[in-house]
Amino acid sequence: MQWLLHHLVCLSLQYIFSALVVAAASSQPGATDDDNKQVYIVYMGSLPTTGSEYTPQSHHISILQQVVEGRSAVDFLVRSYNRSFNGFAARISSDEGHKISGMSKVVSVFPSKTLHFHTTRSWDFIGFTEDTKSSRTGESDVIIGVIDSGIWPESESFCDQGFGPPPQKWKGQCAGGENFICNNKIIGARFYDNDRSARDNIGHGSHTASIAAGNKVSRVSFYGMAKGNARGRAPSARIAVYKPCDDSCSDQQVLAAFDDAIADGVDIITISLGGGYHQPFENDAVAIGAFHAMEKGILTVHSAGNFGNEKTLVGLGVNSFVMSGKFPLIFGSDSDKCARTCSDGYLDSKIVKGNIVLCESDMTTCPFDEPLSAGAVGAIALGTNADNSTSYIDP
Ligand SMILES: *[C@@H]1O[C@H](CO)[C@@H](O)[C@H](O)[C@H]1NC(C)=O
Ligand SMILES: *[C@@H]1O[C@H](CO)[C@@H](O)[C@H](O)[C@H]1NC(C)=O
User: Fold this and answer.
1) What's phi and psi for 279, nearest 5 deg?
2) Of residues 116 and 318, which shows the higher confidence score?
3) What's the whole-model pTM score?
4) Any idea where the Inhibitor I9 domain is (predicted)?
5) Among 124, 200, 290, 382, which residue's Cβ finds the most Cβ atoms within 10 Å?
């Protein structure tokens, strides 16, 4: 049973998805005006089709200059959107935002909110099974723009064996930054976050990109679970990576990704991010991006969310190893009142020995050491935050 001790799987149960709504900072005594500023998006609709002398960024600065009296507007401009639609992101106060929203040519002004990762279900779920026919030649001209946390270019899912050069219509770039090389499968890369490359550090972007267009990779599994073939719906399609997210993403970065993806000439955009709240379309970065994509005939595929239908599912837990026998499950607090979270030194080894212990604790402080040293054969961590609930194997 030694192996069991070395393979404790920490499962974090998903509770409520808490949407992070960034509210305008409230004035506090002593707070300077700059402390009350946050990033707002000023959305200005389509770019003018006539007037070659129109330069979006100077227009944006002139709008901003009218509200940041006596100071240089350039210092407050975060970025301009000027390739596929018109608008900008700026660090301003809610009063300044309110003033801008009354100006001509401005459609909406809204705080840049935080978006969270969503994940889609398999193609089988929507009826496209592995033997569904697709045309390899037609497909290899299709460019799918993936707006997410980047990509892991060396993954087998994105190997370019058998791919010819990028389609001639492609206008994008490989600007993936440090330690990032494109190939004939990943034909473009750009990033907008604080990392120095379009490389995916958390896996979500590689996952969603492989669902859309990953090569077929045989015999894969998640630490031995869910064994099978991984495959995208369009394995011969090309991928253009846009990375607005590291741990999370902001509206202002997501809009920059749409601005580029549309102008670069992708055929389809896939985005599995969302805020978990409803808002009017003119204040919704994904809706604005998808609208201007559609104007150019580009379809946007957007995840619906991770909320499910609010029903409780009852089932068996999963693990990646064979359990030799059955073990009782006990709650940390059964052994000691202070042991609910399985904190150091609180578990009574006489009680937990030979049991699987349920600990009321988040993944971030996953308490393996304590149940292990107290003689438990396993531990389950009960997390409360669906955002960073994850699977975890020890060691
Ligand atoms: C377009 O926006 C980018 C990014 O903010 C900026 O660097 C560039 O100067 C802008 N170009 C024009 C013509 O406004
Ligand atoms: C998990 O989520 C909580 C609440 O959003 C946050 O405070 C914490 O930093 C997150 N932990 C990690 C490892 O991301």
Assistant:
1) -155, 160
2) 116
3) 0.75
4) 39-118
5) 200
User: HSE (CB half, 13 Å, CA atoms) of 321?
Assistant: 17
Q: Tokens at residue 258, please?
A: 């749409």
Nearest-angstrom CA–CA distance, 152 and 203: 8
* pLDDT tens digits along 134-181: 777 788 999 999 999 999 999 999 999 999 999 999 999 999 999 999
Cα of 193 from ligand 2 centre, angstroms: 19
Residue 338 dihedral angles phi and psi, to the nearest 5°: -85, 5
pLDDT at 264 over 80: yes
d(CA 393, CA 395): 6
Q: Give the residue, by CA position, lying nearest to ligand 1 atom 10.
A: 57
Is the alpha carbon torsion for 92, 98, 103, 108 positive or negative? positive
The first and second tokens of residue 52, run together, are 């070659």
Cα–Cα distance for residue pair 219/216, rounded to 1 Å: 10
Q: How many CB atoms lie within 10 A of CB 168?
A: 7
Q: How far apart are CA 379 and CA 394, in angstroms?
A: 11
In the annotation, is 204 catalytic?
yes
Reading the block at residue 34, the tokens are 């700059």
